Amino acid sequence: MAAPCAALLSLLLSLLLSFLLLLSVWKRWRRWRAASRHVAVVVLGDLGRSPRMQYHALSLAKCGFSVTFLGFYNSKPRDELLHNDRLEIVGLTEVNMLAAGPLVLQYGVKVVVQALQLFWAFVKIEPACHIFLQNPPGLPGIAVCWLVCCLFGGKLVVDWHNYGYSILGLQHGPSHPLVLLAKWYEKFCGRLSHLNLCVTYAMKEDLAQNWSIKAVTVHDQPASFFRETPLDLQHRLFMKLGCVHPVFRARSEPLDPATERSAFTERDAGSGLVTLRQGRPALLVSSTSWTEDEDFSILLEALEKYEQLSVDGENLPALVCVITGRGPLKEHYSRLIGHKRFQHVRVCTPWLEAEDYPMLLGSADLGVSLHKSSSGLDLPMKVVDMFGCCLPVCAVNFQCLHELVKHEENGLVFEDSEELAAQLKMLFSTFPDPAGKLNQFRNTLRGSRQLRWHESWRQTVLPLIVDT
């Protein structure tokens, strides 16, 4: 009985290897015919919430490559991707964990199904001369993309945003077997790539010292659409958002019914001129993916202290706090916010369209970042975007934040809710005085020479691709 089973297994394995060999020859021939100008950009995550990989895809398309952008299509990417003739989006199906069974089995089934799905997607698309892969998540992406490069030709480029095992460790603890296995996989498979990019100098050093991986630091830069928002567009945005979110609506009606008024702006009925309202509230913005590496209790406690200062008679403006994003902890924090009884502070947690988010940043008075990297080695891209809009930032401190936020130069760094509350008091005590600290930071950002993403990309990444 054993002999026939072994013979059948050997036959199936031979057929599989023959199929892969023929597939490899066919794909390599297609890539040769296509003159090697096709690149795949891969995210085993939501494409609409992967801005850096969107920027990679757009820059590749602008430089003459045809691009296939693979990932989960849960939220809409920017219109520039959707309307670019050189760029095709291929949606992958997100695989959910099994509802029952041991944790190792649940993860194992998910990884195998995702691996097969990703490999089949590569079989169907045009062969790629380069595969850009976001890590994390790198399981099973790094192994699958490396195998595709071996079979079909091409070079694997891994863009290290963080370490996947460190994020997994937030849920299960650093010594959990799954976390240790993920670390081994990431370390071993990361060395299989032809080129490695990373987001900070600190991560470059860590990859070299602890992983024996040579990487090139490519700091995040804001895209060209992150800029200060003109007043007329601010007003249009506030009126649009006010249809859904009351914090953007004016609390009193204008004397002239033809005048449009939001909580922050007013459009004159006769001239159409938009002005900022006298006595308007200050607008604070924070964005998040609502995950364990961002502790929003710090912001809520700081807002409570700000509220108490206002109740005690401090000369502070009313404050509208807008926290944007989606993620697993949003419901938890929404419940906490709902239990607050603020009088001088109003909190809103909308999900914004891709085109509205830059406009909101360009309209705000202050940005707050609560991103604490699970590895301590990546930087919050939300701060990069805020700086692109010349928006001053208060950011919670961690290991390599100094590569982006210079304390008392382009923003402020805090350690806890007490320090954040003190910074809010200091920044808003003279609001909206043009000579106040907020505007000093804003003027510093306006005066700095900020490279935009595509300009930086052409200088750093494009030569690397050509040489690889």
UniProtKB/TrEMBL annotation:
Subcellular location(s) per record: Endoplasmic reticulum membrane
Q: What is its EC number?
A: 2.4.1.142
The UniProt entry lists the main location of this chain as: endoplasmic reticulum
Classification via InterPro entries: ALG1-like
Gene3D superfamilies in alphabetical order? Glycogen Phosphorylase B
* Catalysis performed (reactions): an N,N'-diacetylchitobiosyl-diphospho-di-trans,poly-cis-dolichol + GDP-alpha-D-mannose = a beta-D-Man-(1->4)-beta-D-GlcNAc-(1->4)-alpha-D-GlcNAc-diphospho-di-trans,poly-cis-dolichol + GDP + H(+)
**Keywords assigned by UniProt, alphabetized:** Endoplasmic reticulum, Glycosyltransferase, Membrane, Phosphoprotein, Signal-anchor, Transferase, Transmembrane, Transmembrane helix
What pathway is this protein said to act in by its record? Protein modification; protein glycosylation
Annotated membrane topology is: Single-pass membrane protein
The terms under GO molecular function for this entry are:
chitobiosyldiphosphodolichol beta-mannosyltransferase activity
Question: Looking at the UniProt record for this protein, which Gene Ontology cellular component terms does it annotate, in alphabetical order?
Answer: endoplasmic reticulum membrane
Tell me the protein family, please.
Answer: Belongs to the glycosyltransferase group 1 family. Glycosyltransferase 33 subfamily.
Function field: Mannosyltransferase that operates in the biosynthetic pathway of dolichol-linked oligosaccharides, the glycan precursors employed in protein asparagine (N)-glycosylation. The assembly of dolichol-linked oligosaccharides begins on the cytosolic side of the endoplasmic reticulum membrane and finishes in its lumen. The sequential addition of sugars to dolichol pyrophosphate produces dolichol-linked oligosaccharides containing fourteen sugars, including two GlcNAcs, nine mannoses and three glucoses.
What is the protein name stated in its UniProt record? Answer: Chitobiosyldiphosphodolichol beta-mannosyltransferase
